[in-house]
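BUG: 3D viewer hangs when loading the predicted structure for this chain

Environment: internal workstation, default settings.
Expected: structure renders.
Actual: progress bar stalls at 90%.

Input used:
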Amino acid sequence: MLADWRQIAVALYDNVVATGQADHVVSRALSQINIADISAVLAVGKAARGMAQSAYDNGVRVARDKALIIAPSDDHNDAHDWPLIPSAHPVPDQNSLIAGQQAAALCQSLNDADHLLVLLSGGASALMVAPHPPLTLDDKIELNARLLASGGDIHQINAIRRLVSQIKGGRLAAMAAPAQITQFIISDVENDQLSSIGSGIMAPDPMPVSESLALIDTLGMADLWWVADLHKQYADGRMTPPLSPDHPLCDKIDSHILASNKQLIHAGVIPDILSSLFAGNDQHSKAQAPQIIAYPRLSGEASVMAECLAEATISAVNQAGKTVIGITGGETVVTLPHDHGLGGRSQELALAFALAFKTAMQGSDMPWLILAAGTDGRDGPTDAAGAILDSQMPLDIASAKQALLRHDVWNYLDQSGGLFRPGASGTNLADMVVIIAGS
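Structure tokens produced before the viewer hung:
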């Protein structure tokens, strides 16, 4: 039974990843515009290569010096000759800085006769950086690490990134003015807020500067050496603020969300897959099909979310009196101490769920399974997308608790065989969780 559940959970993951692939979502979007007008292409993010290739396959043709792809890897055999900068994620590197400079140069080369196609996906914030002086790349790397460990959500994190960037918060769009801009987006952020996807390189910033500056204190980074100077630069007008929502340039930007976590995970994929799995079986088998249940969206601390999911699952099984299955998505956070181990938010969520479920169901032999993973195929700075755990796997409660306490879940799960390693997916739609439990 658990082997069948594992197949169902992985099939659900694969379905969401496949539905969010660049080839068909970009192809469909391009059919709605006049591609002959496109004179420049900027693709940046974890899905940048696939989105650029799809654009080319569907007839987009621009000069080599009017194109730029910024992606995590240079291991490619693309059919076009558009230049590619292999950059870093989640921690920016020297190539990220070069990428930011070249993206700015491309945009500054445009005029009112140009139409720029921007192909944007999650991960762009680290893959392309341009810290505003006096910040250096090292300062940006330190800030990025502090932000990722702060426990702030993606909207708070990217609000601060926009403050200290020369290209984010719509500033890259201002460099491209007066060119027309169309951006196609594969979203990895909750509510698909344009200013948070890639820190809004082509979108205005809805948060006032004063609120964004206050977040530096809120997230515990007021000790960084440049913070006082940043306040002064904004106060005396030496720092150009992000683009405001009422700026006239916004009229030249046409944005389209092609795929997102919420769209795909709550688009009926569970009924579709379960129908195919039980098609052709006898009526008794169909009656035993799992009952689909609703979970809240993923948010907040991963371990707290895990406990919420465990409680909801146990309650649903007790009410249904049969096997239940649920899927949800979004993005949790993990607040890291200075001294921590290796892992990721999906790995932490899965292990915390296992502990919570086992603790609550002491003495019960109720079977359960959880798959928690990043749809890009990577969870934190590890080689795993997340974890897949079930009730038959050995769970050393003391060791698991210690792994969670030290935020060193990767080592624990690697030793216990719980890591989920599907490989890079070519897209980025935040995280998803599949849970199956019951008789």
